Amino acid sequence: MNSEFRTGYLAVIGRPNVGKSTLTNRLVGAKVSITSKKAQTTRHRIHGVLTTDDAQFIFVDTPGFQMTHKNALNRLMNRSVTSTFADVDVILLVVEAGRWGNGETEIAKMLPADKPVVLVINKIDRLADKAEVLPFIAKVSGLHDFAEIVPLSAEKGLGTDALLAAVARYLPVSPPVFEADDITDRSERFMASEILREKLFRNLGEELPYGIAVEIEKFEQEGDLRRIHAAVIVDRDGHRSIVIGKAGERLKRISTDARKEMETLFGGKVWLETWVKVKGGWADDERALKSLGYD
Ligand SMILES: Nc1nc2c(ncn2[C@@H]2O[C@H](COP(=O)(O)OP(=O)(O)OP(=O)(O)O)[C@@H](O)[C@H]2O)c(=O)[nH]1
């Protein structure tokens, strides 16, 4: 192995809708491995891993920034900031070409001084003339001491290699944490739980109970069909109704969103059964939804 191999943790942050998910998915794709070679040094959940010849990029979840809820930033300021930035090596702040608004100003205030922040200027495909980005770069470079500024289009895949090259420099020299190509159904299982978790975050917004977790209890494959049994685990009985929603509608929406994304990712039908479990005891009688999807 390359003795200069680098491995590090990255947080992708930014205002809602700037393209964080598009960027992360473009970089990571479905290639996720959960076989850790050594103890994880992060408290974060891993969103995805990209391994190249020279480096391993480990993308961590940044829930505070993934919520579309208008109070997401307040919430983040109150309690998530430290944990979002703890343990990562590089922060990728994503903005849209030509747009630096209040959201960006607020986020910039929270950036830690001791971590490299790479500014990603996304959606440059929208610019009629790519040179239009130059005055914007000049402007934003004065707003924070960015380690690098990289214009790109996450959707079109333009400039993403340049981003990786720019980011790799800030990762510590260290062997990979994850196996490079170990794509097994365990990794699909992992992706399934991450997708469901993300849908919970999105749909519950500010109501997201503390300590909520997802457990994939069964993951079976028959041809192209995957049968997945997932439990959403909450701390207290009162949290269950929050997740389930009126007449089970919320959990149904969450599960449908999750199933659709799983089907796209896995390239086949998914039969997803989801229910809510209160930590410490099963609540099968309250099983919210029996079978979803596979229509
Ligand atoms: N034109 C263009 N659109 C993009 C690009 N990247 C993302 N988008 C679009 O921007 C919208 C938001 O993208 P997401 O990746 O969901 O943004 P996000 O920052 O993850 O959003 P939240 O999860 O709500 O915080 C989607 O409609 C994307 O298709 C890009 O490079 N160019």
Automatic annotation (TrEMBL):
Superkingdom as given in the UniProt entry: Bacteria
Q: Where is this region: G4?
A: 122-125
Q: Which organism is it from?
A: Sulfuritalea hydrogenivorans sk43H
Biological classification of the source: Bacteria, Pseudomonadati, Pseudomonadota, Betaproteobacteria, Nitrosomonadales
Provide one Gene Ontology cellular component.
cytosol
- Does Aminoacyl-tRNA synthetase show up as a keyword for this record? no
* Domain Era-type G, residue spans: 6-173
Which residue ranges are recorded for the region named G3?
61-64
Q: How does it sit in the membrane?
A: Peripheral membrane protein
InterPro entries referenced in this protein's UniProt entry, alphabetically? G_ERA_dom, GTP-bd, GTPase_Era-like, KH_dom-like_a/b, KH_dom_type_2, KH_sf_prok-type, P-loop_NTPase, Small_GTP-bd
The record's function comment reads: An essential GTPase that binds both GDP and GTP, with rapid nucleotide exchange. Plays a role in 16S rRNA processing and 30S ribosomal subunit biogenesis and possibly also in cell cycle regulation and energy metabolism.
Cellular localisation: Cytoplasm; Cell membrane
Q: Where is this region: G1?
A: 14-21
Q: Where is this region: G2?
A: 40-44
Residue ranges of region G5?
152-154
Q: What is this protein called?
A: GTPase Era
